[in-house]
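Sequence, structure tokens quoted for completeness.
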Amino acid sequence: MRPRPLSAVVIDLDDTLLSAYRRPDLAWRSVCLMMQAELGGLAPDIAAQALTRAGQAFWRDPRCHELGRADPRHARRLIATAAFETLLREGHPAPACETVSSLADAFSRRRDEEMRLEAGAEALLLDLRDAGYRLALLTNGAGPLQRAKIERFGLEPYFDHIQIEGEVGVGKPFPDAFRRAFAALAVEAPEVCVIGDSLEWDIRPAKALGCRTVLYDPERALEAELRRSDADVVVRTLTGLARCLPALHTQRE
């Protein structure tokens, strides 16, 4: 069969181009230490561990995940409430309700303040444009929230198509989200390389459609879950990633 050369790249936003939501445990601990005097005698480390566990449980639930993508600030308040309710049942002291909300909001502010472009992200986009690839940004989340990130970091000029779950009504990992992006670029799946940080949301659904895939796993967090059939390439850094793509051109249908 004839090779299908790559002509387009579809890229994820959060924790791929932007460092946004990794290591919530460290962020919760930092906020708990900052607000230690308001925790009602509860040790900051105990509070941070409970908040991290509550967050993991929240984001594992598909319905909660959907609600949280639409309104992360509200999601963090729900997470904080659940964490301190659990601690109270276990016999720990608990802060006032107002403190719980304030702590969750402080976490949201910290996440926003610490958000940044991943090292090598801008160079990657420039390299891909220079190489002639059509580019799409495919991201889940609420329209205003994701648009604000795109504007803040000046990403819009790099892309031929920007697709946000909250604006179009469908997001990853659903096939229609990917197909909509492919149609906007006037390409078919075998001509596309999808770059993302999630096996569940980016890599496996794209692979199922016939795309080439690049998994961005800077902290080696997904090594235990990774199957040989998942990603064509796994990278720890975005620097020089564009040079990996020509090797994928030789893959066959």
